[in-house]
């Protein structure tokens, strides 16, 4: 299933990319090819599509409540990665890579 033999993957939402990728070489893994339940795939897909809803892309700045929105998104992502881990079983390692974009934007703003 994975490009490398390690069977380690990470769940990480990003703009326009599949949310699950190989943790060794960072190449995207096709969610459709994963041996997961349809329900979970849909949840992961929906979750990934919500990525960045705390960012006003048009004006390249953060929306109000960006930190809370991102924290919520990260919380759900953690829950989903646990579910993926459970469905895949012990043969695989799934870890969640939380989004830090809101904090990233904030620290840029706070620079002089
Ligand atoms: Zn790989």
How would you characterize the overall build of this protein?
- The protein is an alpha+beta fold and 112 residues long.
- The chain has one domain (8-109).
- The protein is 39% helix and 13% strand.
- It has three helices and five strands; from the N terminus they run ββαββαβα.
- It has helices spanning 38-49, 66-88, 101-109, and strands at residues 8-11, 20-22, 55-56, 61-62, 93-96.
- Strand 1 and strand 2 (20-22) form a beta hairpin.
- Helix 1 (38-49) runs antiparallel to helix 2 (66-88).
- The longest helix is centred in the last third of the chain and has 23 residues, at 66-88.
- The chain is elongated, with a radius of gyration of 15 Å.
- The structure holds zinc ion.
Q: Helix content range of the residues, please?
A: 25-40%
| Element order: H for helix, E for strand | EEHEEHEH
Q: How would a crystallographer describe the biggest sheet?
A: 3 strands, mixed
What hetero molecules are in the model?
zinc ion
Strand count: 5
> How much strand?
5-15%
Give the integer mean of the pLDDT values.
89
Q: What radius of gyration results from the CA coordinates?
A: 15 Å
- The backbone outline, from C-alpha atoms, is elongated
Structural class: alpha+beta
Span between termini: 47 Å
| Widest β-sheet, arrangement of strands | 2-1-5
* Domain unit count: 1
Poorly predicted parts = none
How many helices? The count is 3
The gist of it:
The protein has 112 residues and is α+β, with helices and mostly antiparallel strands.
């Amino acid at each position: 299933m994975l490009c490398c033999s390690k069977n380690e993957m990470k769940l990480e939402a990003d703009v326009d990319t599949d949310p699950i990728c190989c943790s060794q070489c960072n190449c995207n893994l096709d969610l459709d090819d994963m041996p997961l339940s349809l329900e979970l795939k849909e949840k992961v897909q929906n979750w990934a599509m919500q990525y960045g809803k705390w960012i006003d892309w048009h004006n390249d700045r953060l929306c109000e409540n960006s930190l809370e929105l991102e924290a919520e998104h990260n919380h759900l992502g953690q829950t989903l990665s646990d579910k993926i881990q459970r469905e895949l079983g012990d043969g695989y390692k799934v870890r969640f890579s939380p989004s830090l974009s809101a904090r990233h934007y904030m620290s840029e703003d706070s620079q002089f």
